[in-house]
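Q: Could you write out the predicted structure for this multi-component system? I'm mainly interested in how the pieces pack against one another.
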Amino acid sequence: MLRFALNRIFWFVPTLLAMAAVTFVIMHLTPGSPFDTSDKVSPEQIAQLERIYGLDKPLYQQFGLYVWNALHGDFGISYHARPQTVREIIGRTFPISLHLGAMATIFALVIGLVLGVLAAVNQNGWLDYASVSLAILFYSMPSFVMGFLLILLFAVWLPNHGLDLGFRVGGWDSPIDWVLPTIALGAAPLATIARYTRSSMIEVIRSDFVRTARAKGLDDRRVVVRHVLKNALIPVVTLVGPIFAAVGTGSFFVEQVFNIPGMGKFFVTSMQVKDQTMILAVTLLYGVFLAAMNLAVDLIYGMIDPRIRY
Amino acid sequence: MQRSQPVDSVDLRSANAVAAASAAEQGAGEIAERLPGRTAPLSTVGDLTTRPQRSLWADAWRRLLKNKLAVIGLSIVVIFTLVAVFAPLIAPYGESEVVDPRLARMHPSWLFPFGIDANGRDLFSRVIYGARVSLVVGVLAQAIVLAIGIPVGAIAGYFGGAIDGFLMRIVDVIYAIPQLLLVLLFVNWRGPGLANIFLAIGLVGWVTEARLVRGQFLALREQEYVKAAQVSGAGNLSIIVKHVLPNSLTPIIVAMTFGIPTAIFTEAALSYIGVGIRPPQASWGQLVGEGSKPGYVQTDPHMLLFPVLAIGLTMLGFTFLGDGLRDALDPKGND
């Protein structure tokens, strides 16, 4: 197991380097300098700024320098938000995104599992159809559509009709502000988890060992919890890793819709202002997060299913 | 997702339907190649084709119509397409025609069912014209995805080995970078506007299609009918186009029904950020962006509600349809 984990971590290094290199090259292929976004800067000043930040050096030197500095924990200065360093900005915004992402993942996992199990146990009953329809509905709604619909319903329409639950149009100050973004961000993952749980459960329910468990007289609840669910969980675990990586690094749209000061916005705004150091940092952070989650998933496999050995 | 189906009868029927469909397309001589090894000898199969049989597609169509959600989805998609195509006939005002600046942000009424926007334009007309942008982006982006994804996936999956390794590493690298990031890069580079939007979405989105097609080809190239075609001297290109591709069609169609709404959503997202369609051209995402400006949401929610509903309903329609198609085309239901 340890050898497996170390091997995976070792192979992860070239992958990260490749990701960084591709992002780096693409960023430099797009014309324009990160400093010409405001009209007040003269060409001489731009040239001077580029010299300060080493942007006048050949590309391979820049890349080498970036990797060297990154290995020492220095991800440079945000070109757009100078003089703040990328580390400061990410240190401030990433915890907020991670917090929201964790809540959304837990929400998706709990409700998704319940819906999936209920659907599978009542296969073809009304409960099945209801949860399948709900899952498709959630699955098809982009998070910003979901977010705006939640805002319109809970923060505008209901208060206007005399039912004020305290929801606000946006913000991140009090726990009540966390509720709607969590639902908006968790809805699509919830649907995915519910669908996979359902189909995986149905497959397991048909297997011989479940029939044996029933035959020896176990009641339905115990069969489902002890035998079916445990075996059906494996494909679901695969999903949760990447889902957490995706929502934990911040969603631009949910943060934008609800006005949350998280990290997700840099995936978009840094791109618009060509803030290369920020883009590289958030891309790499996502890559590391995703790889760590995938590794965690593989290790959890071994715990759920003792037959899996590395 | 698997739905209630009397598995025994459906499975038999579809097996026959596959035989009938291939017979119709290929002529009786090639049936043997296309049938899985365990089926009945050729003579029996020949009998089958002489009986009136529903084709695979007719059969799938029947199953689709039995699925309520799929019919709802299909209706939404058809209405959406009609609205987009006949927008100038349906919309009471022009795409960016100012009805009256004094009516700015007027709430919905009989005369203006969706209300008026901040510039005094009829939102109903704007939303209808917005469907056009969505349809164009959805269809053309998907066309690019198919044009690149199918050949790359087919070559990688059919030939395997070093070619496969090389192509798939490229795909992996592109796949590892968040797609929105790449689309944004492209749009930043080429500038906003309709053409650049669907180009960006198509040029980034083909990797998923390539993976899907590769998987299909990897599995299918080991089938007896491919071996038979190879032995009988058919060229690689002809085997790919005539034998393997037609048998990979159903997952490609299903992926298409999910790819179109994804492209539509991406355009909406870009326009919402403000790097997509240029105003005064109307796009749903851009309408959402306008309607969600601070201050408007509480006092004039209609400016946000209708474009958001338009995007949501379109997504819903395509997803219902895609889900139904998957069930209908693959009765065995491998999720």
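A: Regarding packing and overall arrangement: Chain B has two domains: 7-47, 57-328.
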